[in-house]
Amino acid sequence: MTEQVSRMPADADVTRADSLAREIYAGVANKWALLVINTLEDRTLRFNELRTAVDGISHKMLTQTLRGLERDGVVDRTVYATVPPRVDYRLTEAGRALRDTVNGMCAWTRRYLGEIEAARHRYDTRD
Amino acid sequence: MTEQVSRMPADADVTRADSLAREIYAGVANKWALLVINTLEDRTLRFNELRTAVDGISHKMLTQTLRGLERDGVVDRTVYATVPPRVDYRLTEAGRALRDTVNGMCAWTRRYLGEIEAARHRYDTRD
DNA sequence: CTGCATCCCCGGCGATACTG
DNA sequence: CAGTATCGCCGGGGATGCAG
């Protein structure tokens, strides 16, 4: 009996975990999040330092991206009660682990840059 | 003299390569592209098989994503002149290399699923 | 079955202005 | 300096229909 009633919740948990993973994956798999993670590397940066370093990102998108990463425990946010205020951002342990995989994507881009360019030219001039 | 005239183009090339890398990075760093790459793995799949497997992706987005990946030489597209038509998609060598790094992100999600969930709860119930 | 075009709407994102 | 809120637009992307 216990086996029967416990089966359904177990399956439901698997489904929930899957959809959660999907959601996390989708949240992290976006341009700005990955660029921010890449930029942070091992450094501790302030809001405007990040804003300058990421280049192309707007004030709003940076805030939004940082909130998401902070919520997921990827970046750590430290507020200093000074005036003017100062806020430091750095990667958490989970964030550094993620950064390692993100670096792999960067390496891939560099490694295949030439091939991709060639493939594009072939594709664009086909026929 | 040759050194002087060759300097400017060299710098320009670096800049161009950087922006190209950025563009490729941005193109690949999106939810649907990564999910398609993950789904393809080592298999060869037809359009509708992919459509079903990726779940949540629309007809239009799948077409669009596949075109982009095909153009960048990440996926290989094979058309059979049969009726009804049949089109097979598979990862190229570059695509498989990219998949390896993408798998790293999946592994990361699984590894930190619990921590992320906890971090979210902490964030959402702070104060 | 696969792919392209069209329409249309919702929401992401930039710009701007205002608090602490 | 850092963050929040509001507004407005442009475009991503879903739905649908048609072609090969």
From TrEMBL, chains A, B:
Pfam family, one: HxlR
Key word ATP-binding present: no
Superkingdom assignment: Bacteria
Residue ranges annotated for the HTH hxlR-type domain, each copy included: 17-117
InterPro entries: HTH_HxlR (IPR002577), WH-like_DNA-bd_sf (IPR036388), WH_DNA-bd_sf (IPR036390)
Key words, A-Z: DNA-binding, Transcription, Transcription regulation
Single GO molecular function: DNA binding
Ranges that cross the membrane: none
DNA-binding is among the record's keywords: yes
Protein name: HxlR family transcriptional regulator
Organism expressing this protein natively: Streptomyces scopuliridis RB72
Native organism taxonomy: Bacteria, Bacillati, Actinomycetota, Actinomycetes, Kitasatosporales
